[in-house]
Amino acid sequence: MRIAIYAFTGITMFHLSVPQMVFNEVARQGLAAWETVLFSDDVAPITTAEGYQITGVSGPDAAYGSEVIVVPSWYDDGRPAGQPLRQLLVDSHHRGASIAGLCLGTFPIADAGLLAGRRAVTHWQGFDQLTARHPDLEIDDSVLYIDYGDVITSAGTASALDACLHMVRTRLGADAANQVARSLVIAPHRDGGQAQYIQRPLPEHADDDPISRVLDWAVDHLDESLPVERLAEVAHMSVRTFIRTFRASTGATPASWVRMRRLDEARRALETTSLSIDQIAVNCGFGSVVTLRQNFAAAFKTTPSEYRRQFEARPTSTGQTPAGPTPAGADLS
Fold this sequence. Notes:
single chain; alpha/beta; Rossmann fold; six-stranded mixed beta sheet; two-stranded antiparallel ribbon; 10 strands
């Protein structure tokens, strides 16, 4: 898979490096033959925000034919995207490429009309400006990334890592994403539903944080009933205090967090084991295959059986990868 990354004078080295680090690690780990290319409005050198000059950047023609186009950031002043970039994004999208706007990179994606009537996220400092420019766009301040399959946007700065790992996960599976995360020594999965900023200090020691202990405990007991009362008991808190503290720590309710962990484990089992779907439903705490299917379809717009079929063909030495997620509206029987 070829991934084209847009570079411009004034971009920070961090924003420019994140998609290259994550996607190139896929190839370095031998998971799939992914390659990245930097392109800009022309072939002139660009100067980063830190003052480094980067030469050898390709012109816009290098982006055409890529399966993924990434705009990893944008100008601090939020200026409107130029017509050539907007046209490139629209043409690539119409051709079937996935478009990713990371951090302030949401701005040119919206300028190209690819987010009209959709939810999106960007760095919290850009909320007001983006909303004023695109009033038909719904900005969600409670998530790290939003993926529509054809377009993905992410919150500020380090959330780009989460979005890029999510793209690896949806295309190559949880094990591949975990392998990349381990190699880069980053968290393998921060949920897209996690708030992008938390207005409370993190605990000085993770071991002293009751919520951290509950999260670890719950992951080891997904096959059991996990009502909020039981989780609060493990945390040695009242239910009301636990719910409030849990949401402040994770940006999610206990029920939604547990549901997503069950779905994560179900995906891993579908990708890597031959267990029956009925057994996976039990092991992941859904109780019945009907409940698993309902939750799976609501979250991923496909069925467990169809999802498993996507991962029966593993990446080969030629770099072929499984097909992407089933589009919305597919048969969910």
